[in-house]
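Incident log, entry 3
Record: YHS domain-containing protein (170 residues)
Problem: checksum mismatch between cached and fresh output.
Input:
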Amino acid sequence: MKKKGPAMRGHLALATAAVVSLTTMGSGESCAAEVVNTGYFGNVAILGYDPVAYFTDGRATKGSPEFTKKWLGATWYFASVKHRNAFASEPIRYTPQYGGFCALGTSVEEASANIDPEAWRIVDGKLYLFSGKEGLEEDFDAAPAAVAAKADAKWPGVEAKEFKTRAEHN
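Fresh output:
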């Protein structure tokens, strides 16, 4: 049997992570999605914001078309090649929950492509995006685990609806 080099191990790890995330979505894990929110125009995730920057810089940072990665059918922008490479090696770690749709909206079985990349939270190592900052302290921060549990339960239905809607319009 041939030894697996670093590149092959990386591909295997990524494939395994993708399969695990997609098969565990209905069991409280919602790391990845088949549907990625790219808004109403273009095919850019998080309106061009860098998903890695939320974790490494602790702030919303606009990405650049110079540093991109295609993943799950969307183009992701990054502020630097370092961030792009970090995402490429562990996309599940940096991908927003519920395909980048508003976590509060998802918790009540609604999805809107309108998100505010400046309205975000990281809880238990997971990135949550919202449609706006108003009400976050009362509606999410007061009980993030409860909101996430509701959103986790509602996400499969929201995702199916969004996937169907997108398929009908393509």
